[in-house]
Sequence to fold (336 residues):
Amino acid sequence: MSSTTDYAGERSYKRARLELDSRSASHGDAGITPHETFWYEDGNVILVASNSTTGCRIHRSVLSSNSEVFKDMFQLADPSGESYSGCPVVRLPDTPAELDIVVRVMYQPLSIPCLASKETPAHIHEVYAMMRAGKKYQIPPLYEEAQRRIINTCEFDSRAWERSRSFLATSSPAIEPLVGESHYIVIVQLCRAYGLNQCLPWALYACCSWYVSPETLVYGIELPGGTNVMLSKEDLVNCIRVKEKIHILQTHTIYTLLDWTHACGCHDRLEADILDGDTRSFWFSMTPLGAGAMDVYEAHLKGLGLCTSGIQSVLDILRQHLTKVSERLPMLLGLS
Fold:
């Protein structure tokens, strides 16, 4: 069953220590399925995620030494509560993915590829679990790595479009892109929840791009395990509005290009391309602000057969447009 993330009700990590499940099974054995990896016979506590019967039998000492929250949690636990084979059971409100990554980082950190190597792209559901569980239980290796990857992916740079396409070819993505760029919806929510405001302009702009379908923009995406992550109503409205505002600026630039004249007759080729039904979408799709934007424009103009001076003249107009949009982006998104 899907569960919708509500960050407005996110509990502070100090309150997390009180979130032991109030349901307990007298003194008898609970129905627990041992975790295939994290089940140690000498373990003295069994952790079970929300809506799950799989238990991780591990050691209180390991949990307490890695997390003050777990340390306090065990001090508050009811010793007469639920048990399995004589071992206390603690039910957590976290998703199975969040519990798995917490236990894994304490026992087998190298089994998490994105923690074993900073060059390995992380899947968005890993970043989501690392940030939420890491912050909640105050485990720095988790939330610091998640934060680093979000910043590397989305830290706003109003001049990013000036970088060449070769910049992209020499760097691995910190977060593995999803089809349709929908991972940016998750990034927006994490930025909102954990104060990564410097990443919001780019993450919200990416949600506005034509790659993200209207359906995904409205209803969000479902992560492995069933958690559904959506934009807030405010961010959804801002995305819809900013699309219109950017298209207005883009239309003004298109008019400038249609009025542009050049001695060698390049104008006719450019005008025909802008108005042609097959290539019109190139000019009227969402303004590209990422690295390689100018490379794409230049390659397209060369393909039209424009002369060298004509290409440079048109690129100057496009640079002015990209500068205007990128510098105004935070304001257009209501972030400044």
About this structure: The longest strand covers residues 33-39. Residues 16 and 136 are 7 Å apart (CA to CA). The first helix runs from residue 13 to 16.
